[in-house]
Structure formats: C-alpha cells, structure tokens
C-alpha cells in the first residue's frame, strides 16, 4: 500500500473540511501573481505594527538570554500579568494556577475541546462563527450545533434560541463577542439574557472568545459572561490573547482562565503537543498587558473611521445591506438583493460563494463568502487596511453590483 493512499490517513480527517477560505485566498494569490490588481479584504489581522514598547520587551528578552524552554503553559510573570488584566478590565479574580498560556488563541480553544469532549458531546456555536470553531469540535470528537443568528437579530443569538439548542448532550457554548465575522457585540443586558438560560442548565459550560475585547466602538461597553453572571464562574473558560488589540498576530500568544481541574487538563494536552509558547513572545506579552494602553484608543479611532466609510459605501451598493457593527474590524453585508442576477462576464449569482468568486475574478476585490462562516447570503470584509484601499475596493463593489442584470 502506498503511503499516500487515503487509507493511510486518519479517519478523523474525514470529519473535517478544508478551510473554505483557502480557495478564495489561493485564487487571489494566483491572480496577483499573474499581474492583476487585487485588493485583499480578507485578512483577519490589524495592519498596525506591534507597539514599540512591546517590541523592545521582546528584544530585551533575547538580549537577556530568555530563550530557553519555559513552564509548559507559561511563565509565572505572564500568568500574573493575565490575572491583573482580568481583575482590572473584567472584575474577575483568578490565581496563576487557574491560568494557561498557549501558542495563540486557537491553541487555547483546541486544548480545551480536546481535554473535555467525548463522542456524542454537543457544542453550541452561534452562526455566523469563526471558521475554525466547528472543525475544532469535530477534530476533538464532538458534534457542533450551529444556531443561526441572522441580520434580523443583529447577528446575535437570542435566549430563546439558546434554550432550544440545549440538550442533555450539550457540553459547551462557544461565545464570541465582538464577533468574527460580523463585529456584533453583546451588551451586558443581552448577555444576561443568555446567562439566565445557562443557569437553568448546570451541565453546560461556557467557552468565551474575548479576542476582540478592546476593539469596541462608539458607546459600546464590553462584557464577558463570568463578569455578568458570577454564578457561572466555576463553569466558564474565559479565553483571550494579545493578537488583535495589541497587533501581535505573529507573536502567537493566547491565554485562558478557568477552574483548576480544566486548566490542568489543558496543560496536559499542551505538554504532549507543542509544550511552551515562544519564550520571547511571552515576555513581550507581559509588556503588552502591563505596559501603556493609550494606543488602544487611538487605534480604535482609526478603525471607527474605516468602519463608517465601509458601511456607508456598501449600503450605497445595489442589492447590499450592511449593518454597522459594535466592534472588531469586520462587516458582514447581506447580498440578498444580488441573488439571481448575472454579471457582465455571464456568471449567475446563486449564492455568496459565487458572488465572492465573481467579484474577485471580475474586479480584483478579495472577500470571504458567508457560507464559510455558517450564514448566507453574506460576505465578510476586513477593514484592517488603508482608507485608500477601502475606498477603491468599495467603489469596485458598487460598480460590480450596479452592473448586475
């Protein structure tokens, strides 16, 4: 038998689909390599550089020889900084042995699922969702249960929907606010409606993805489940990281705080996979959490300007409705008014994947189609790029929609 035979590969892989965003990314790269003028609106990372004080902390760590193995799930100094951050920002009290640090937020979520899921366990995931949630659940042997939260509810799951989705097999709710891909944020009162439901179902745990916590706009106030409902403290894993707000995507540091037995189980998983996160990145993350925070507000001013520009221009496009999100750096426009129409090149738009593909091929604008995030017909735009790029891209989208017949 050839080692490349499908029989050689794990049957677990059959439960997981390749990332639907890869096809669009590959096509965009191919077109760019062929000389086409492509504007990418798919990147899920800030275009800002990592702040100087954080970079200097990383350099200082290198110069001080802090380049050896560390404790499996993080140095004590970083765990202490995380505890201080959670107390300061979220009114949550944790000790260092209730904290785990991983190689990015994704590893934290994956460790938790691998440490807790058994075959048949269900995980409720509001849709639209970050593309990796369902597949991580599947890899860990669980069953994802998407709950569609459409434009009519502001892309937010209602308490009634959560109640209806819970079964005796439900183990986790994965909760992301502000959201990737919609930017929708749950207010404290909206969150209280969900936590009231969870109080009635003590077998359901909550895994929060608070990665966009500091990227909130206008008068929106961020809240996290264990803060809103302290009675959920013992069955909440509060997950976060430095990637987005601190422009540290490549440094790969995520973290979580929760009950000691769960943290210990996650540490065991990590001890037999990656072991410790990068030592230099950990020291940089200490500075990120303990150091100056003023740049967060100035960065958000830029994001607000970009958000407003994109929302206004996309709402001016024929057939598109674009809600104004509370946070993150994404918008998630609805393209219902474009379906059934034909592009000048002869492509009939029957779904959002065809829309995104035609948009890229005919205008050079790369977006991610909504089916990748579990809710159609939509597409995701990341406005973490320059104003000029956004204006040009939105103008091309307007022209593309106007040319549909």
TrEMBL record:
Gene Ontology MF term list: L-aspartate:2-oxoglutarate aminotransferase activity; pyridoxal phosphate binding
Cofactor (UniProt): pyridoxal 5'-phosphate
EC number: 2.6.1.-
Keywords: Aminotransferase, Pyridoxal phosphate, Transferase
Annotated Pfam families: Aminotran_1_2
Annotated SUPFAM superfamilies: PLP-dependent transferases
Gene Ontology biological-process entries: amino acid metabolic process
Chemical reaction(s) catalysed: L-aspartate + 2-oxoglutarate = oxaloacetate + L-glutamate
Domain of life: Bacteria
Coiled coil: none
Domain Aminotransferase class I/classII large positions: 36-397
Description of how the protein assembles with itself and partners: Homodimer.
Family: Belongs to the class-I pyridoxal-phosphate-dependent aminotransferase family.
Protein name: Aminotransferase
Organism: Halocynthiibacter halioticoli
Lineage: Bacteria, Pseudomonadati, Pseudomonadota, Alphaproteobacteria, Rhodobacterales
């Amino acid at each position: 038998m050839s080692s490349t035979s499908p029989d050689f590969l794990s049957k677990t892989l059959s439960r997981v689909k390749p990332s639907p965003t890869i096809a669009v990314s590959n096509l965009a790269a191919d077109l760019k390599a062929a000389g086409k003028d492509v504007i990418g609106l798919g990147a899920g990372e800030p275009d800002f550089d990592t702040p100087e004080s954080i970079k200097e902390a990383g350099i200082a760590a290198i110069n001080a020889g802090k380049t050896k193995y560390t404790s499996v799930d993080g140095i004590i100094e970083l765990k202490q900084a995380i505890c201080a951050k959670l107390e300061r920002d979220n009114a949550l009290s944790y000790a260092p042995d209730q904290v785990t640090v991983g190689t990015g937020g994704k590893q934290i979520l994956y460790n938790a699922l691998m440490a807790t899921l058994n075959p048949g366990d269900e995980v409720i995931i509001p849709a639209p969702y970050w593309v990796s949630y369902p597949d991580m659940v599947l890899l860990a042997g669980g069953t994802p249960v998407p709950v569609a939260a459409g434009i009519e509810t502001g892309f937010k799951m209602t308490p009634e929907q959560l109640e209806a989705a819970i079964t005796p097999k439900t183990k986790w709710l994965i909760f992301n606010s502000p959201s990737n891909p919609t930017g929708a944020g749950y207010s404290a009162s909206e969150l209280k409606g969900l936590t009231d439901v969870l109080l009635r179902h003590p077998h359901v745990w909550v895994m929060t993805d608070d990665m966009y916590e500091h990227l909130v706009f206008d008068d929106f106030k961020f809240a996290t489940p264990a803060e809103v409902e302290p009675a959920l403290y013992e069955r909440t894993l509060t997950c976060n990281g430095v990637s987005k707000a601190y422009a540290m995507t490549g440094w790969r540091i995520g973290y979580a705080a929760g009950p000691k037995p769960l943290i210990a189980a996650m540490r065991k998983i990590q001890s037999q996979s990656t072991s410790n996160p990068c030592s230099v990145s950990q020291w940089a993350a200490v500075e990120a959490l303990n150091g100056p925070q003023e740049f967060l507000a100035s960065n958000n001013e830029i994001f607000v300007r970009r958000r407003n520009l994109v929302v206004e221009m996309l709402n001016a496009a024929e057939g598109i409705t674009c809600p104004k999100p509370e946070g993150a750096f994404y918008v998630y426009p609805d393209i219902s008014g474009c379906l059934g129409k034909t592009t000048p090149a002869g492509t009939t738009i029957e779904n959002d994947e065809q829309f995104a593909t035609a948009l890229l091929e005919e205008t050079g604008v790369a977006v991610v189609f909504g089916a990748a995030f579990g809710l159609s017909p939509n597409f995701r735009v990341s406005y973490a790029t320059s104003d000029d790029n956004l204006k040009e891209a939105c103008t091309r989208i307007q022209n593309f929609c106007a040319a549909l017949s």
